[in-house]
Amino acid sequence: MSPSKTTEVGAIFAIPLRQGLFGACLVIEKVKEPRLVRRPGWRVAVLDGTWAQVPALDTFQSRSLNVSFMRRAWLHPGRVLGGTVEGEPPQDWAPIGITEVTWEDRLCLDDLFDLYDDWLDFGEQVLREWRWIHERKELQVDELRESKGEGLQKKLQRMSERDKDWDRGVTAIEKRLAKVLPKGAALEYSAYETDEDGLPVDNLDQVAVEGRCIFLQQAEPPFGTGKNYVSAEVQNPTWIQVCLLANEMIEITRDRQHVFLEGVHVVSEQNGIKMVDFVMGS
Questions:
Q1: What pLDDT is stored for residue 138 in this prediction?
Q2: How many angstroms separate the CA atoms of 170 and 160, rounded?
């Protein structure tokens, strides 16, 4: 009898990758109602490993899942690759079966890179992460072969110059923030956009959330040992204003682990006022 396609806590699905390989993900938690720091949906984490065929359920029941989650290597290294998604996975994500979700497994949610809210977007990030880990050299070689005769030394020099351009872009943003944030501020900003070349773009003066809004954040032990944060009402805040609020939030919640501002998420809207939480990374 084939495993059920229905999404539920403990469900494991196979994720098609490349070259006939598969990854896998585990549904860890169901968030039924919006919270201060979470949207409703299934919280899903990617399991570490790749397989030449859809793996059997025994593959995962015979090992410790809590040490077997894929951690990002490309962006935000060390964070567990995952997201909060709604509905059912794509048709080509084969159901593997149902396993017990332990309290150790739930600990990974503290490190979950919880920015993706669509199965397909989530799946694309899994493929990109897998290629970064397993095919990085192959991709670099392919780029060299497609560079229309460009010499290796020139190509490597251009790559080095691009790294310097990236550092210059990030440094310029950091210097702007340093002028407005309190001295010794814990906040690190990573919600900047990138241009067509993948280089950082200063978006600090752009509006982060349109309209009237209040920012909220829950103090969640063991990292947040302070109080829950509720901002004053603001209207059309720019990213630089959001940075000031996020730094204020860190001081209130006392969470010194998650200090990277990666984005914002509108949780709900009440009487024309949007309730917004911060997407924070470590």
A1: 67
A2: 16
